[in-house]
């Protein structure tokens, strides 16, 4: 998935490495035109897209496009339906959303699946999931979309449901269920496997450090090293071969934490913390046009406030990112 740096998992905490100042610097970028929370975010064609979300407790169909070179935003064609807590990913340059809720808090889970074509600025409806879910995690592995976990129509309980969509056939099949049902978690594909990290069982107080690894060859899950800090509603990304996890919820506050996992050394690193704690972060990678990176939209739960900050992380070559040839700016859109 060269166009997409998804919501990703960061695993393992044998020993956290102290924060390294040379790993990055945060700066403020142009904010969204209007604040909203519980958004989804994807990157393709050198642009970043903030999709759906909630305003005043109601799901909205809004779509905003961010252009990194000009540091500018513009509105795009709205979704067919207002939804928040979407699963989102990119296949073949097109953005696919899965599930979501029609309103807060966790109200009216849907099975809807939509595809957005940025070039034509149009939406179309794809085959729905078999099970309505919101707060569902989505990732692409071997060209197929995996929708894992979430919360169903009865939002009292989280589920371990795992469905797989094949774009070639337009059909969904069932995969092995997640061992520990949960939602608000990270899901990332790396080295031919899926990693499901963090999340919560019922409410923010039930957040977990769980790490489950899915092998498509055996259609089975196995336990992985836990997330250093139990969190849910976090941002996640695969960047420069490392899985990065940012923010998250810790009622009544939010995390500014920024941690990265190196799958080669199987060690965690602590990176430069975000300027503000964030819940429901959304991250994604940019194309080489912007030197790589990831973007994020988030909101904070500490005082139930919502704002529209837009921060940028400049990753620097060093122990955390040894492969960089120089500084790389990583814009992050943030709904606090």
Instruction: Give the CATH topology.
Output: Neuraminidase
The structural class is mainly beta
The CATH superfamily title: Kelch-type beta propeller
Biggest β-sheet strands, sense, barrel: 4 strands, antiparallel
Q: Please tell me what the overall shape is.
A: globular
**Low-confidence regions:** 1-22, 284-309, 324-336
Number of discrete helical segments:
0
Strand content: 35-45%
- Strand ordering within the main sheet: 2-3-6-7
Please indicate the count of domains: 1
Distance between the termini: 28 Å
Mean pLDDT: 77
Class, according to the CATH hierarchy?
A: Mainly Beta
Helix content: under 10%
Report Rg: 18 Å
What's the CATH architecture?
6 Propeller
Descriptive report:
With 336 residues, the chain is mainly β. The protein is 0% helix and 40% strand.
Compact summary:
With about 325 residues, this protein is mainly β. Helix content is about 0%, strand content about 40%.
Quick tags:
336 residues; mainly beta; globular; Neuraminidase; disordered C terminus
């Amino acid at each position: 998935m060269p166009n997409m740096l998804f919501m990703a998992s960061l695993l393992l905490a044998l020993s956290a490495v102290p924060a390294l100042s040379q790993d990055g610097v945060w700066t403020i970028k142009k904010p969204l035109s209007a604040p909203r929370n519980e958004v989804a975010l994807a990157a393709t064609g050198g642009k970043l897209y903030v999709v759906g979300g909630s305003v005043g407790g109601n799901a909205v169909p809004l779509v905003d496009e961010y252009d990194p070179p000009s540091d500018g935003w513009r509105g795009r064609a709205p979704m067919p339906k207002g939804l928040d807590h979407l699963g989102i990913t990119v296949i073949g340059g097109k953005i696919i959303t899965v599930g979501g809720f029609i309103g807060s808090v966790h109200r009216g889970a849907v099975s809807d699946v939509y595809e957005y074509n940025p070039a034509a600025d149009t939406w179309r409806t794809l085959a729905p999931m078999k099970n309505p879910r919101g707060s569902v995690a989505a990732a692409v592995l071997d060209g197929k979309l995996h929708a894992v976990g979430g919360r169903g129509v009865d939002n009292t309980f989280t589920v371990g449901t795992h469905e797989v969509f094949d774009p070639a056939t337009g059909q969904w099949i069932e995969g092995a269920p997640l061992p520990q049902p949960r939602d608000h978690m990270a899901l990332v594909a790396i080295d031919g496997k899926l990693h499901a990290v963090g999340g919560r069982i019922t409410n923010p107080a039930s957040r977990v450090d769980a790490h489950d690894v899915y092998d498509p060859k055996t259609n089975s899950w196995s336990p992985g090293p836990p997330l250093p800090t139990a969190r849910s509603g976090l941002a996640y990304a695969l960047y420069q071969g490392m899985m990065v996890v940012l923010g998250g919820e810790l009622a009544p506050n939010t995390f500014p934490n920024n941690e990265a996992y190196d799958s080669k050394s199987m060690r965690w690193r602590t990176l430069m913390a975000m300027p503000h704690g964030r819940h429901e972060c959304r991250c994604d990678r940019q194309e080489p046009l912007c030197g790589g990176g990831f973007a994020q939209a988030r909101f904070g739960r500490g005082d139930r406030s919502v704002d529209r900050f837009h921060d940028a992380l400049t990753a620097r070559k060093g122990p955390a990112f040894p492969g960089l040839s120089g500084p790389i700016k990583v814009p992050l859109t943030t709904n606090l």
